[in-house]
């Protein structure tokens, strides 16, 4: 999978997760209102008929109904937060600075799980403190998650996502709800960043230090090669003296001690620098490399 496809997948995960968070909020709000209305209506009818047991049953049913709504809404939220966490994780793996969002979603996830446990334990009246604890952890996670969305908006230059992130940071349910809507809409406009094509490295061969030429006709130079290469020939410029033998003819990656035999070099001036031109085959290309060596009889 290409980088751009992976990046697009991360963005889509954030967007679909935002949609689930919107649905979770809608379900929790509408479901709670409907449950409360139904419970109050049942209690009124029971009270009107002087049915005390019916009033009690309606009250218990109201509590159970609210707990079930919270439970289902939290499960929808769990799906959303898992998708958002996956989106932040994918973008983070591509080097995007959204790690704080991944941390926030982890905390938010822990908070939601605690909320689910608290909702289940509401039946035995010990779940309220657990619900409060879950709310606090989810609050901290939500703030960090909002910062993560804001950074996504900055990275991709999408204002709606930045504004959505700011609203998600604020611990007010209505603003969070609007924030996820803005983030969802903004993420639909986001496109992966263009990738910069990496230029292939150009193979290089160059001299290391100063070479020497001796009166016996041998020259000694050190060459660095970035890859395997072959020396075809060598010539002392100015004197027009060609090499007879070269060892080694194949350069390995790194430094190579090269010995070149030129034969009769008596025409060279002592303690004078000469340019030795090497013809080299590297990567299928023939190039000339200039090196220097001092004649020291």
Describe the structure.
The protein has helices at residues 3-48, 52-93, 99-121, 128-155, 159-169, 173-187, and strands at residues 205-207, 211-213, 218-225, 229-236, 241-242, 245-247, 250-251, 254-261, 273-282, 285-295. The protein has 297 residues and is an alpha+beta fold. It is rod-shaped, with a radius of gyration of 37 Å. Strands 1, 2, 3, 4, 5, 6, 7, 8, 9 and 10 form a ten-stranded mixed sheet that branches. Helix content is 56%, strand content 20%. A hairpin with a 2-residue loop joins strand 9 (273-282) and strand 10 (285-295).
Q: Rg to the nearest angstrom?
A: 37 Å
Count of DSSP-assigned helices:
6
- The number of E-state strands comes to 10
Instruction: State the order of secondary-structure elements, H for helix, E for strand.
Output: HHHHHHEEEEEEEEEE
Shape: rod-shaped
Assign a percent range to the helix content: 55-70%
Unreliable runs: none
Please report which band the strand proportion falls in: under 5%, 5-15%, 15-25%, 25-35%, 35-45% or over 45%. 15-25%
Sheet bearing the most strands, described?
Answer: 10 strands, mixed
Structural class: alpha+beta
Termini, distance in Å?
63 Å
Output mean pLDDT: 82
């Amino acid at each position: 999978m290409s980088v751009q496809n992976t990046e697009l997948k991360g963005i889509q995960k954030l967007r679909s997760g935002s949609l689930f968070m919107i649905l979770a909020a809608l379900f929790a709000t509408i479901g709670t209102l409907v449950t409360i209305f139904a419970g109050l209506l049942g209690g009124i009818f029971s009270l009107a008929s002087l049915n005390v047991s019916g009033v009690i049953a309606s009250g218990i049913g109201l509590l159970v109904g609210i707990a079930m709504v919270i439970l289902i809404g939290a499960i929808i939220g769990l799906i959303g937060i898992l998708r958002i966490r996956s989106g932040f994780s994918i973008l983070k793996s591509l080097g995007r600075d959204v790690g704080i969002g991944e941390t926030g979603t982890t905390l938010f996830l822990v908070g939601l799980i605690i909320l689910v446990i608290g909702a289940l334990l509401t039946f035995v009246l010990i779940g309220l403190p657990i619900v409060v604890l879950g709310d606090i952890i989810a609050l901290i996670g939500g703030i960090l998650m909002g910062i993560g969305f804001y950074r996504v908006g900055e990275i991709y230059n999408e204002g709606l996502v930045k504004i959505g992130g700011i609203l998600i940071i604020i611990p007010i349910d209505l603003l969070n709800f609007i924030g996820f809507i803005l983030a969802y809409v903004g993420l639909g406009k986001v496109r992966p960043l263009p990738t910069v094509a990496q230029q292939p490295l150009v193979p290089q061969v160059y001299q290391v230090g100063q070479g020497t030429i001796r009166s016996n006709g041998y020259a000694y130079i050190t060459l660095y090669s970035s890859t395997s290469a072959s020396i075809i020939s060598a010539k002392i410029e100015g004197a027009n003296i060609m090499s007879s033998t070269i060892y080694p003819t194949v350069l390995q990656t790194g430094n190579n001690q090269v010995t070149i035999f030129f034969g009769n070099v008596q025409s060279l001036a002592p303690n004078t620098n000469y340019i030795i031109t090497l013809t080299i085959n590297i990567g299928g290309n023939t190039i000339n490399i200039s090196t220097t060596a001092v004649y020291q009889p």
